[in-house]
Every structure is written in C-alpha cells, then in structure tokens.
Amino acid sequence: MVAQASEIPVPNIEELFRPTHDERARQGMVSFIRKLAIIDMRRALKEDYESRIEPRLDREGRKPADWQTIEKAMQQEHIFRFYSAVRYNAQEMCYLSVQPAVERALPAMVGLARDLAVRNPAGGSLRLNPDLELPKYITALDVHLTPGWVHSEHTADDVAQGAVVSFGGKVFTGQHPYRKRPGVVGESIAYWIGKKYPNFAPRRILDLGTTSGKNLLPYCTAFPQAEVHGIDVAAPVLRYGHALAEHEGLAAHFSQQNAEQTDFPDGHFDLIVSSFFFHEVALKATRKILAECKRLLAPGGLMVHMELPDEASVSPYENFFWNWDTHNNNEPWYTAFRAEDPLALCAAAGFDAARSFKLHIPDIATFGEERHARFMRGELPSPAHGAGGWFVFGAERG
Ligand SMILES: C[S@@+](CC[C@H](N)C(=O)[O-])C[C@H]1O[C@@H](n2cnc3c(N)ncnc32)[C@H](O)[C@@H]1O
Predict the structure, then answer these.
(1) Which of 271, 268, 241 shows the shortest CA–CA distance to 254?
(2) Ligand 1 binding residues, C-beta < 6 A
(3) Which has the closest alpha carbon to 279: 307, 317, 258, 305?
C-alpha cells in the first residue's frame, strides 16, 4: 500500500542537532553554572545585602533609597563582582556551547527548512522580506550576548541563529538534555485568557517579536479555530520556527515584518500578544508598536504582553537586580523600558485607561489548575515574576 503524503511524518529540525558526548557534557556544565548564578548566588547576594551591606550603609547614614544607590554600593562588593562575572560568563557559554553541533547540522537544517517552506504540510506559511531594514536596536550589538543575535546570516536560507537561540535557550533554562516543552509563557497567558474571558474566541491572533514561535505555538492549541500569526524582523529564526511548527502539525503563519509598521489591515486581529519583547526595543519604537497594536486590534479584541515588571511595581532591591542586564547582558533598553508605566504607554497609544491592566499571572505549568482557580477567585496571589509567575500588561479594545 502506498502511504498518503499526509501520513508521512514531517521530519523534526531539532533532531538534526546531534551534539557529541563531550558537547553534551559541556552544555550540562553550563546549565549548572547558569543555575548556580541565577538561583543560588542570587539568593546569597540578597541575603548578604539585607544582613550585612544595607545595615552597614544604614550605620554610616547612607541607607539606599533607590536602586541606583544600591547598584553603586554593590559594585564595590566582592560578592556582587563574583556573581556578575559568573552570570556574564554563563550567559556567553550557553550559546557558545551549542554552536559546534549547529554548524555540523547546518546544511541538513537549511535543506529541511527550505523544503518545508515550499510544502507547508501543516498548512502554515513563511513570508520573508529580504528588503526589510533591520532596526539599529537589533544590529548594533550582540543582544543577550548571543553572537550574531537572531538576524545574522552567513549562508543562503540560513537557519543557524534559529538553532543557536533555541538550543542555547534550552541550556540557559536548564532543559537538559533538551526536554521538549512548549512555551510556558504563551501557555500561561492563553490559559489565563480562557478563564478570564470564557466566551472569547479570537479569529486571528498575532505574536510580536515571535523569534521561532516558542510562545506562539501554544495559541494554536488553545484556540484551534484561530488563524495564528507570528512576526519578527529576523529571517533565520522565522525559517527555523516555521520548520518546527510544520513538524508539530501546527498551521502558524510566520512573516518577516517590523512590528512598528506591519502590512496587516486595520482591525485584523482579535488577540495580540508578545513575550520578552518590549525590553529589547528602543523606547521610541515601543510607542510606535503599541500604536500599531491599537490600529491592528479589532473592536472587542484583547492585547496581552508579558514583560519585566515596571520599576514602580517592585522594590528598589529588585529593580537593582532586574536592571543588571542593561549594562551586563547587552540589553540597552531594559532600564528605560522598566522606568515607564506600561499603563501610561497604553494610554499614549490610544487605549482606554479604564480597560488597560497590569498584573502578575501564575505560570500554569508550575502552579497547576486547582491553585489557578483559587487565584482567579482572588483567594491566592500569583507568584512574582520569574518566581512562578509572569508580569503582563495590556488592554481590552472597547
Ligand atoms: C527576546 S526575543 C523574543 C522571544 C520570543 N517572543 C519568545 O517568547 O521566545 C525578541 C525578539 O523580538 C524581535 N524584534 C525586535 N524588534 C522587533 C520589531 N521592531 N519588530 C519585530 N520583531 C522585533 C527580535 O528579532 C527577537 O527575535
């Protein structure tokens, strides 16, 4: 019997990544160092600040009242310098540790992505624009300390940065060895929307700065009736994400566009989302993007962005902790974005203040459905951002 085309499994681009034993060992070690820095050393740093450094500054009449003063004081402390050095190096090593295996797999990855972009077996699509001018906040430096960030291309139809960012991200979050896991942020937002707006059935969904669609794909599953789109300025991550989605059997439409000005018609989307996006965008562009969201959102639509909590929402010490990335992780817009009130940004883009919101929502994968129901009834608070919860802001379009 001859198999129908639809019965032939679509190859998985991720399976072409085959690190050697030693490379895997190296990646495991990097995950461990990264965890040491971001969990254990972070905890030790805070304890030391509270029990030793702050009381000493207080005795000297210099108790810090804001995060800038805390940062200045901490920069003199060996514990902070050691933490920073470990965290910085761990970040760089996440990406470096996956590069050799990506390089070996590259010709096969390019070939597969190319084939899937023509065939679209799951019904998705990939639309690239080689003439798109990349914003300076993408090209000026290796954002996240990722060599070549998301956009660099060294061969025709290059997907390397998609693979480096994807596998480097797995090393970064300690998903070793490459446990398959959907985007927990998209999953958490989609779950929260389902509980908060039970009758909401978006026809079209847009994810801004989707990279390879990790936090876009959960919306395909949560809202199977919807047409799901992800945009990004960087071609390699879109090619890679499209190949992944087609393998997963999810019809997602990826296009290379600047979120500041897209080619979608007015009111085209019922739901616009993003994750880990705005803090990497110049503030001027953030304002333009939110105005573009207002243009693209249909009446009755909803916009939900997961981001870092703004300065006013957390303590001076936490602000000192979060803003570390501005100078140490090549994320120059981090502090400027966090200094803004997201509700004021929404209002400036034309959203109704009474219909705008910012809050923490639980991470559904770790919080669980039963506790989430209690959160929705107001009986339990959400964990803080990065500690089992996610900070989100957005607006309902009246
Ligand atoms: C940190 S990544 C986002 C990660 C992704 N949303 C996720 O959850 O896995 C930021 C992404 O935003 C994209 N980006 C930055 N500025 C953009 C713009 N103006 N328009 C579209 N994409 C943009 C970058 O190319 C990058 O892929």
Answers:
(1) 241
(2) 135, 138, 150, 183, 185, 209-211, 214-215, 231-234, 237, 258-260, 275-277, 280-281, 285
(3) 307
Burial class from Cβ neighbours inside 10 Å (0-12, 13-18, 19+) for residue 291 reads middle
Which contiguous run of DSSP H or E holds residue 73? helix 67-74
Q: What is the pLDDT confidence band of residue 107, given thresholds at 50, 70 and 90?
A: very high
DSSP E strands, the chain:
125-127, 204-208, 227-232, 252-256, 269-275, 297-306, 356-362, 389-396
List, for residues 331-357, the tens digit of each pLDDT value: 999 999 999 999 999 999 999 999 999
Candidates 354, 288, 344, 281; CA nearest to 311 is 344
CA gap 37, 126 in Å, rounded: 38
Which ligand 1 atom minimizes the distance to the CA of 143?
1
- Mean pLDDT, the chain, whole residue set: 95
Ligand 1 binding pocket mutation candidate from 280, 283, 284, 293 (most atoms within 8 A of CB): 280
**pTM, rounded to two decimals:** 0.96
The residue whose C-alpha atom lies closest to atom 9 belonging to ligand 1 is: 214
The structural domains of the chain, ordered by start, are 184-396 (3.40.50.150)
Å from CA of 12 to ligand 1 middle: 23
Q: What is the 232 CA–ligand 1 centroid distance (Å)?
A: 6
Q: How far is the CA of 209 from the centre of ligand 1 (A)?
A: 3
Closest CA to 143 of 307, 284, 277: 277
177 cis-preceded (ω within 30 degrees of 0): yes
Tens digit of each residue's pLDDT (9 = 90 or more) over 29-88: 999 999 999 999 999 999 999 999 999 999 999 899 899 999 999 999 999 999 999 999
From the number of C-beta atoms within 10 Å of its C-beta (0-12, 13-18, 19+), residue 44 rates as: middle
Residue range 256-270: average pLDDT?
98
- Asked if residue 242 lies in contact with residue 113, where contact means CB atoms within 8 angstroms, the answer is yes
Rounded Cα distance, 396 and 261, in Å: 21
State the angle between helix axes of 21-35 and 78-96 in degrees (0 to 180), rounded to the nearest 10.
Answer: 150
